[in-house]
C-alpha cells in the first residue's frame, strides 16, 4: 500500500473541538476533540454507546452539540445544519445508507447535492450526466435508472458512496460500511478507499471489525463512555490493544473451545435436506454440548437452511431428527415444539418488541411454560425465570422494566438470547449473533453460548465473522452455492482457512 | 419485459390503468351504444372535476408518506363560509374575490394540520381525523348549519357557463367551464412534482423521512407546505362543488373522503408514501367516474357502484403488491446468480 505524504505536514481539513452533548441527563460526549487531515483514513473505534454515532451526527449537522465547535477549513461552525455540512464537503455514509428506496439510482446520487446548493428546480435530464460521470470514474456497474429498492445491499452501498463523491466531498464518514458486505466486496471497498485517499479525500471509518479497521486506516481514535481515550498510529496498534482501549480491560478472542470433538449424543440429525433454488443435499449432525458454525457467502443458502430448520421456509426433501425422533418442520410452531430455537439476522425487526420491557420480551416466547393450572400467567414463575436470565446473561440495564429500545446493541442481543433460553430449547440457532455488537459484549455473548452448550444444548452459529467462528465453534460447516462444501474441525479451524474456503 | 413495454407500463402502472379504462369504455359502448356519445363523455368529465381537484391534493399528502382525511371538511368549511360572506350584502365579492377568500381559509386550515403534524410529529391519520371533526363542528356551530339554496350572483353566473356546447335539444353536449382550472391544476402539479426541488423533496420524504433529514431537506417546512397546499386545493374543490351544484350545503362532501383516497390509490400511489403520479391519479379518478356512469347506463343498481369500486381497488392494489413481491424475488435470485458467477 502506498502511503501519501505524512498527513501531519498538511493542514487539517476537519477539526472537532471539545464537543459536549447530553441527552436528558446522560452525557453522550464529554469534551471530544479530533483532527482529520487530507488523504488519511482515521478509524473511530469504541464500544456500542461510547458516543461514536452521536459524534457522526454532530459532524454531519443532524444533531447540535451543547458546546464545542466543528471547524471545516478554518471556518468554525457552532451550529451546523445538514445542508451546510454537505456544502462544506462533509459526507456521511450511514450504516443504513439513508437512500431513498423510491427514487432511481441517478436521482439518489445527485439529490443531496442539489439540496445543498439550494436549487429550486430539478432537471432529470441534467442530473444524469453528473451521476454517470461519478459511476464511470469509479468504474462501477450500476444501472442508473433502477429504483434503489430493487438493488442488492452491495449496490446500495455503492450508490451511497457515489452520492458522497458527486458533490466533491473532502471528508467522508463511513459508519459500519462492511457489515452488509461479503469478504470480496469488502476488499473492493478498500481498493476504493485507497483511490479516494489518492484524491486527497479524508475518511473517517467506523467499524467493529478490528482487523479490518487496522488494515485500512492510518490512525485510530478510541472513544470510551463519551470520552477520548487515545489517538495513535494504526501501525503501533493491534486488534488486542485497540480492544483493550475500547473496553478498558483485556479481551480474550483466542480459541477457547476444546479441540477435541464433542462426544455427546446427537441432538440434531439432518439428512439430505433440500429446497430447490436455495440448498441441496445438506446432511450434518449436531451433538449435545457442541457449538457448530455455519458460514458461507451472503445468498449461499446458509440462512435458508436455518429458516427451514425453524419451519419458516419448509424444506422439500430430507429428514430431520431431534434426539433421535424424526420431526416434521412445516411451521414455526412445529420447530418450537420440537425444541428448536432461532435468533434471526435482523433482531430489531424480527426478534424483539422494542417498546416493551426487558422482562416482557424475555418471556414472550415461553408463555406456555409459565402458566398455572387455570391457564393464567404464573407470576412467581416468570419472575424467577426473568431474574435468573437477567443475572446469568449480565444484561446492563437499570432494571428488567426498562424498554428494550433503550438498550445498546449488545444488550438487546442478550435479551433475544434470553427469550430463547427461557424456552429451554434443545437446539438453538443464531444468525449473526454479534453483528453490530462491540468487542466486549461480543466476547461475553460467545462465552454465554459456550456455557449454554456445555450445559447440554446444541448450538448452531451462522456467521461470516471468521474470528468469531474460530473463537467459539467446535466445527465449522462451509456452505457454497447451496451445498455443504467443507467441514472444518479442530486444528483445521482458523481465520485464514475459513476465509479461503468461503471464497474459493 | 422489453424496454418499450416497460416504458408504456409506467413507474406506477399508469399504462395498465389506461388499458383498463379503454377496455371499459369499449365494453360499455358495445353493451349499450348510447354510452358512446359526446354528451356522456362531457358528463363524465364534469363529474370528474371536483373529485380530481380533491384527489390531486390527496396525492400530494400520500406521496409525502401521510394521509389526509380532513380535506372534505376543509372544502366545505372554506366554500360554505365564502358563500355566506359573499352572500351578505355588507361585503360584495367578485368571483375572484370569493375564490381568494376560500383559498385563504383553506390554506389556514391546512396550516393547522401541517403545523400540528410537523411540530409534534404526530401520525397524519389521527391528526386529520381529529381536525376533520373540529372543522366541521366549528362550521356548523359558528358559521351556519342552514342549506343555502341560491348562490351569490357572481358565483351563480359561473354555474351555467359552458366552455363548449355541441348539438342541440336532447343530444346537446355541454362541457363545463370549470374543467379548465382542473386541467391547469393537474398540469401545474405534475410539473411541480417532477421538476421542482420541492416536488422531489416530497418524494424523498415519502421514501425515507430520516434519510431526507440527513440529506439536508427541511422536512418540517416541506410537510407544513404540503398540508397548506392540500387545504387550498380542497377549498378550490369545495368552491367548484358548490358552484356546479348551485347551492351550499354544510352537510355535503364530508363522508366521501374514502372514495377520493381510493381513486388515488387505484391510480398507482403507494399508501406507504414515495410513489404516485398526477397521470395515474387522473386515470384513477376517470376510471371511478366511468364505472359510476356506465353501471347506471347498463342498468346496474347504484348500490353496486360502490361494490364495483371496492372490488377494483382490492384487485388493483393486490395485483401491484404481487408484482412487487415477484420482482423482489427476482432480485434475490439475481444476487445468487452473480455470486455463482463470481465463485
Question: Could you name the key traits of this structure?
Answer:
heterodimer, A: 504 residues, alpha/beta, Rossmann fold, 4 domains, six-stranded mixed beta sheet, 17 helices, disordered N terminus, B: 343 residues, mainly alpha, ABC transporter involved in vitamin B12 uptake, BtuC, two-stranded antiparallel ribbon, 2 strands, 3% strand, globular, disordered C terminus, ATP-binding (chain A)
Structural class of chain B: mainly alpha
**Percent of residues in β-strands of chain A:** 15-25%
The fold-level CATH name of the largest domain in chain A is Rossmann fold
Number of helices of chain A: 17
Number of strands of chain A: 20
Shape label of chain A: globular
* CATH architecture grouping of the largest domain in chain A: 3-Layer(aba) Sandwich
Task: Tell me the overall shape of chain B.
Answer: globular
> How far apart are the termini of chain A?
24 Å
Quote the average pLDDT of chain B.
86
Characterize the main sheet of chain A: 6 strands, mixed
Question: What fold name stands as the CATH topology of chain B?
Answer: ABC transporter involved in vitamin B12 uptake, BtuC
- Percent range for β-strand residues of chain B: under 5%
**Main pleated-sheet profile of chain B:** 2 strands, antiparallel
- What do the pLDDT scores of chain A average to? 83
The span between the termini of chain B is 28 Å
Total number of domains of chain B: 1
DSSP, total strands of chain B: 2
- Helix-strand pattern of chain B: HHHHHHHEEHHHHHHH
For the record, what is the CATH homologous superfamily label of the largest domain in chain A? P-loop containing nucleotide triphosphate hydrolases
